[in-house]
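Notes from the 1:1 (GR / supervisor)

We went over the backlog. Supervisor wanted to see one worked example end to end before approving the batch request, so GR pasted a single chain during the call. The sequence is below; no edits were made to it. Supervisor asked that the structure be written out right there so they could see what the output format looks like.
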Amino acid sequence: MHNLKELNIWKKAIELTTEVYRITSKFPNEEKFGLISQLRRASVSIASNIAEGAGRNSDKEFIQFLGIANGSSFEVQTQIIIAYRLKFIDKENSNLIIDKINEIQKMNRGLQNKLRQ
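Structure output shown during the call:
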């Protein structure tokens, strides 16, 4: 098992989720059960899968959950691009989220590689 609170990737994923919630709170109300819900669930999934993997008994299981978290990060990235194109968010906020996602994805690859050694 890994100490969750010491994992920088988990901390970054929590920051991302907080930012997604902040940004989506300004989306149109009709998106409450659409894009808002999708973005929030996918961003929560990133941190949650990192946490679940960290609590597993083997590095192999942890890698599997990191893979799921990585998939969710690509889901958030896609949804942010859609939100930007629909003009729900501006370029600055879109770039902010995308930059955070890119950082998490790089950290994820690095952690998976480390766990495989």
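Supervisor's comment: The mean pLDDT is 95.
Batch request approved.
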